[in-house]
Every structure is written in C-alpha cells, then in structure tokens.
Amino acid sequence: MDYVSPIDERVRRPEPLARRTASIEGKTVALLDISKNRGAEFLDRLEQRLQAHGAKTMRFRKPTFSRPAPAELIGEIALHGDLAVEALAD
Amino acid sequence: MLESVDGGVYRLDDLPGERVALLFAHSECPTSKLALERLGPLGPGLAARGTRLVCIVQEPLETAARLARQNGVEALVLAERPPYEAARAFGVETVPTTIVLSADGSVEGSVVGWMADALNELLPVRVPDAEPRWKPGCEARPGHDLNLPVRAAGVFDELEDMFERGWTDGLPVVPPTADRVAAMLGERDPDRSLGAVPPALGEATVARVAACAVLAGCKPAYFPVVLAAVEAVLDPDFNVHGQAVTTSPPGQIAIVNGPVRNALGFNSGMGVLGPGNRANLTVGRAVRLVVQLTGGGVPGGLDRATLGHQGKISFCFAENEEASPWEPLSVERGFPSDASTVSLIGGDAPLSISDHRSKTPRELAATIGWAAAATWSPFWWPLDATSLFVLGHEHVQLFAQAGWSKADVREAIFEQVRRPARELRHGETTPLVQAADPDTAIAKWDDPERIVIVVAGGEAGRFSAVCGPSLGMQASVITREVQWTT
After folding, report:
1. Does the pLDDT at position B146 exceed 50?
2. How far apart are CA A82 and CA A76, in angstroms?
3. Could you tell me the domains of chain B?
4. pLDDT band at residue A88, thresholds of 50, 70 and 90?
C-alpha cells in the first residue's frame, strides 16, 4: 500500500564530533549560560576550576532557554572558543 | 532496480567488483531490527576489511530510511518493493538473511536469522558480543502478499501497520493512503511548504499536513482550519520549539471563531472541552500530529514533558459566539466579525471552576480568578504568560446582566487575585516576590492582557474553566484567518 508519509524522511547526515583535546591548558573554553535558573552559578564554579587548570574562559548567554541559540551566538562561540560547555539548569 | 535512501538507484549487478555482504530485513521483524542495529554500524569496519555492507530493506523508501536511521546503519541502504526480485534471486525466505558475495558475484556463504557465531565466521569483523546470540528470523516479504505487509495470522492489518510505522499518537489512526490524502488536498499544491516544524525541523509541505489530517480522522472540509492552525503554530512568536521539547506539560490549544464553526460542525456548546465532536477532536489532533510526526516532537523522544496532559492528544474547540454578549476572540484580535479564524494558545489542561452561589459579578470574577491562583505553581506570582479562561454560559449571563464588558471581567480578575509577598515566600517563588516588601500585594499576572477570555459551553450549569500557562516559552497568542469558502 502506498501511503503519503507525514514525516520528512530526508536523511540528515550527523555532524561528526570535533576532535577531543588532550589538555585544556592554554585553551579558551566558551561557557554558555542558557538563561535558566542557577545555570550561571554552575558555570561560575566550573569557570574557577577550568582557570585553575590553566584554561582561559569566555562567558556567553542565550537570550532564552526556550529557543535554540541564535546563529550569531553560535558563530561567536565557534570563533573565539577552542572548547565549549553548555550549562543546563534547574 | 533498488532505490537507495540517499537518493541513488542501484541494480545489484551494478555493484562494483568488490566483496559484498547483503543483509535482507524488514520492519515487522524484531530479529531484522536486531540485525540492523548490530550489523548496521559495522559498515565502515567491514569496508576497511574489503567487504561492503548493503542492507536491502523490504519496505517503502521512507520506512527503509527510518529503520536505517533508528538503528544507526552506516551502509548503503536499498528499499526493495514488490515483486522483491533481489530476495527472490537469492532465495531469501527469511529475514534477516546475511549473504556474502565475492567480487565475482558468487555466494561465499549465508546466515539465516541472527546467529552471532556463524556471522563471526562469515564476516571479517566481529559482531557485538551481546545477548541474544541466537534469534530466529521471520518470514520474508515474498513469502506472502506481494503488496501488503501481512500479519502472522495471514491477514493484513492496516491499522497495526500505522503503529509499526510510528504514525500515531498512541490511538488508532486513519491510514493516509494516496486517495485519502488527495481528497484532503483538493486542488492545493501538495509541495507548497508551510515551513519547518520544530523541534526536528521537518518541512511541513501541504501534503504532509494533509497526511496528518487524514491520520487524525479529519474530513476534507476541515482541512482549511488545519492549515490555518498549522500556520499559526509555525509563527516564530508561538515558539512551538520550546513548547514541543519542554519538560513542562502544556500543549497547543486551538480556538475556532467565525462562520466556519457552525458550517463545519465544530462544537462550542455542551461538553465543549470534552469528547463527542469530530471537528473539534480531529482538527486538534491533526495539529498535534504535525508537531509530533512532521516536527519530530515525539513524547519520550524530543518531547521531554515530565507529565504532559491529555490535551496534548487534541485540544481544539469553538467559541460560543451566539451565547456571548461580547466581541469574540477573533474580533478582539483584530479580525472582522465575519472572518473565520483559528487562534493558537500554548496551555495546560483545563481546571474546572464551579460557582453556583455568587450573586455579583465581582464575586464571580474573584471565584474564577482565584481558581487560577495555583496554576503553574501556587507561589509563582506573577505569571508572565497567557492564561486562558473559558467562561460558561450562565457565568457570562451574570456578567452581562450586570452590564460588564469582557474588559471589565479581565480587570476584575486581575485586580482581585493578589496576595501579600510574605504569603508567597514558600518553595518555588519569583525573584519579584523575594525582593518585594512583605506587605506588598503581588498580582497573579504581570499584565491584565495575559488573561484571555473565551465564551464556550452548554446553557445549563454554572461552570467555567482555566487553562494554566505555557510558562517560560515567551509564546504569544497567534491568530490566522481560515481560507475557506462555503
């Protein structure tokens, strides 16, 4: 039986993971706050620990947790960060 | 000729002169799924050892693609349709069957069903060392009806086939055959896109929306309402992405206004938020199926709702404009009174409000408003999102007899539902409450415009209802005109 599919069946190729880094020393870690409750507190602590291990850090923030990050923000993170950490929260 | 899920067309004879491992499978066979899940990801490893994995799935292209995706297959995936020439050529009577062909096309060996030890002998890469190591296969497609998948009892069950495909919200659906979808489409362009549906951004072509409408059980006459509702859902200000993936319960509520209500038989009266009316239930269901199937917001998958609610199956109703002394929602939202519209609100399940005793409009507004005090969370004041109040006929009459406008009711609710900050400092509360002077009165809403009022329900009974908000989504109420003619 031929049906009309309700689903967009186009195959999307998954993006490969970036190469893992052996050390964070001297690397710039982008810390992304998704604007959810207490996410910034988690990132504050993480930032201290990353800096203690020799990493540089940069902070970014999504305008709202309920929408995907704007392309410009993702571009900024990709431009300036060697690594990225996204903080979920609640 | 076999179509590949990545767009190519192949003949087995055309495969270049290399060693090939053919895996025959179909979707109704659990052992096939096991074989796809375990062998599929080994494609690159096999290729590195000179053997190309080719999965031949006895399904339509889209089903083959879905099976491949769900099972992490990294190999050439071909969809084989009746009369299953490839399977017949190799005498495949059972799926899964794995056949290794040498570069000259001769058969080196085969394994029927799932047999880990035998496959380890046949293939140059070891299969996962996991239980079950042995599992018998199922009857291959050519063994039975050439066109239709057949159940074990030998009787095709189209409705079960829909569950197998995942084209359901958990209830039986109407299969979207080409004929049914064509009837739904009418003269419309099936390829016109309404946009990408979050969260997975499947493209909502008119044909796919029509397929959802068929699945939901809509009459073709309802389709203009479905299209307008889907357009509203896809408005960026509705933020259906957030609504579709959130852990919070809200779904999408569709409210129909204008002549289309009565012409198509939408219920705005007795039992309006409950069962019994095809137009209400199927249009609401079609909207949800678009989000779930075309958009990929599958409960338990990308839809992360902790609890959800039954309104996420379907939540559509019409305003009882005949019983209302006020302008309908559509007019409030800027449309002419003769326009047919559908308005989308992100919202929680309805909480019913009984008030058979209030004598004054102010008392009644207080009862109705205070019922909403615990929505979202009892101490989370103020709400910065829409609350939908569905006012019943008798409640509306009391307001009307006192000469109150809809704005008067809204203002009376907004002004009366207030508590001192100190009473709200429990558990989950807002930064505003925490920062406020303890005696400052905090309103339940940050703006009276958050209170949306619609009139609906039967003539008898002093009941109204409130649907809590889709908080945190920054989801506006969106209204679209229904492109509809009698």
Report:
1. no
2. 11
3. 2-143 (3.40.30.10), 178-481 (no CATH)
4. confident
